[in-house]
Design goal:
Helix content: over 70%
Low-confidence stretches: none
Number of helices: 4
Number of strands: 0
Shape: flat
Number of domains: 2
Largest sheet: none
Amino acid sequence: MGSFRTGLLVNLAGGATSILILIVLALFARDDGVTALGAPAAQVPRVLLMTLVAGWLGIAIVTGVAYSVQGVGVTAGLSAIIMTQLLVGTLIDSAGAGAITVTIDIRRIIGLICMGLGVWLLVPRG
């Protein structure tokens, strides 16, 4: 079927399901403006937008993973994905955008460097 089509179909199906659930929850809001799950109904459009953005990011990630694993192998590809998640997570948490604010200290820097070296050793050369 192809990497791009697979990523597209999986994320479109998941996104469509999520949007339908959100719309149903918004339709069954109580008189006080609260959805069936207790969230403010005014936040539903924001959540819908975030769902759409997450869906497109998911398509990009699934497609990127499918192409990278073909090129460098499963071990190197998954190690690079984990390294990227650790790096981005550290940056997001240090910026205060995550659940808690984390300071970047020498332990984290050394850990990211070690992970990067491990990924570099796994990537095939030549």
